[in-house]
Amino acid sequence: MDTITIPTAADMHIHLRQGSLMNMVTPYVAEGGVSICYVMPNLQPTVSTTEQALAYKAELEALAPKVTFYMSLYLGPSLTPEEIRKAAKAGVRGVKSYPRGVTTNSESGIESYDIYYPVFKAMEEEGMVLNLHGEIPSDHEKNVCVMNAEEKFLGHLKQIHTDFPKLKIILEHATTEAAVNMVKSLGDTVGCTITVHHLQLVVDDWAGKCHNFCKPVAKFPSDRAALRKVIKEGHPRFFLGTDSAPHPSHKKEGPEACAGVFTTPLVLPYLATILESFDALDQLRGFACDFGRAFYEVKDEKWVGEVKLVRTNKDFNTPETYAFGGEGVDGESGKVVPFMAGKALAWKIASIN
Ligand code: NCD
Ligand code: ZN
């Protein structure tokens, strides 16, 4: 098989940033073969109100008119059940929860879920999605660190699902076998996104290699095997959310050591290459196109194209960098190093119609 034709994909977890970085990244959504994406709210300031979400959406649409942007709000103390109802009416699709301090711009993240139960109730009634960054903060006294932070979070997922069985909940960017097993064990209202990079990386690939560092971190080979297996099975509650999270290279390479892997420009070529490596190319369409749309019950997509992927002779390489800025937008400029920079990919996009 040397060509694959599928609909444009759905990326149900993406960071599109602000300012000059947003200007660079956003047009690449469609180039990577994606026509609908669910946009993360961890900007500065965070996207916490309906107005902010709609204003951000308008900026993104101006940069990528064909793409459908589903927006999210940032869970925090200022979010009320009234705001949830307003947001739902305005088409905001969900709410993202970041535990405090575990990742980029999560300083105002949450410390306890109980106080948000009125918000969750309103979300359940309005059919909104709750997106969970599934890690608890490191606590060395209690032997919690990045390697077990996701597994130790899973009790929260189960509890919220038990208390709100009709609320659609997504465990975002799962990295562990334990997470796969937990999501499988729960009801149909619980979904799970898996990134491109977590299907490829294990802990050895990011320890000391800053461009593969992201939160949650890639874990053991057995965990990666579990992520691969659930995709091979074609489980419909496990779908693509790339968590593409670009940072300027100087911020990843310097003392800030920002977490995040950038995959947006080549989502489908990466995915086809990696799925084929574990004999799951036949699941590309379900995982990347169908299951996410079904879970989000997408009905109002502006445009769905047809993507034709062709096999390369391993003569198609990921760019080393993507430059941004220099347009006087916000004075920021630099370059972003993408996932698998400079490496050959087995598939590339021949056309998108
Ligand atoms: C994300 C970012 O940079 O915004 N980073 C990451 O490593 N995934 C934040 C997040 O989603 O955790
Ligand atoms: Zn993310």
TrEMBL record:
<dbReference type="Pfam" id="PF01979">
    <property type="entry name" value="Amidohydro_1"/>
</dbReference>
<dbReference type="InterPro" id="IPR006680">
    <property type="entry name" value="Amidohydro-rel"/>
</dbReference>
<keyword id="KW-0378">Hydrolase</keyword>
<keyword id="KW-0479">Metal-binding</keyword>
<keyword id="KW-0665">Pyrimidine biosynthesis</keyword>
<dbReference type="GO" id="GO:0006207">
    <property type="term" value="P:'de novo' pyrimidine nucleobase biosynthetic process"/>
</dbReference>
<dbReference type="InterPro" id="IPR002195">
    <property type="entry name" value="Dihydroorotase_CS"/>
</dbReference>
<dbReference type="GO" id="GO:0004151">
    <property type="term" value="F:dihydroorotase activity"/>
</dbReference>
<dbReference type="InterPro" id="IPR004721">
    <property type="entry name" value="DHOdimr"/>
</dbReference>
<dbReference type="InterPro" id="IPR032466">
    <property type="entry name" value="Metal_Hydrolase"/>
</dbReference>
<dbReference type="GO" id="GO:0046872">
    <property type="term" value="F:metal ion binding"/>
</dbReference>
<protein>
    <recommendedName>
        <fullName>dihydroorotase</fullName>
        <ecNumber>3.5.2.3</ecNumber>
    </recommendedName>
</protein>
<comment type="similarity">
    <text>Belongs to the metallo-dependent hydrolases superfamily. DHOase family. Class II DHOase subfamily.</text>
</comment>
<dbReference type="GO" id="GO:0006221">
    <property type="term" value="P:pyrimidine nucleotide biosynthetic process"/>
</dbReference>
<comment type="pathway">
    <text>Pyrimidine metabolism; UMP biosynthesis via de novo pathway; (S)-dihydroorotate from bicarbonate: step 3/3.</text>
</comment>
<dbReference type="GO" id="GO:0005737">
    <property type="term" value="C:cytoplasm"/>
</dbReference>
<feature type="domain" description="Amidohydrolase-related">
    <location>
        <begin position="6"/>
        <end position="249"/>
    </location>
</feature>
<keyword id="KW-0862">Zinc</keyword>
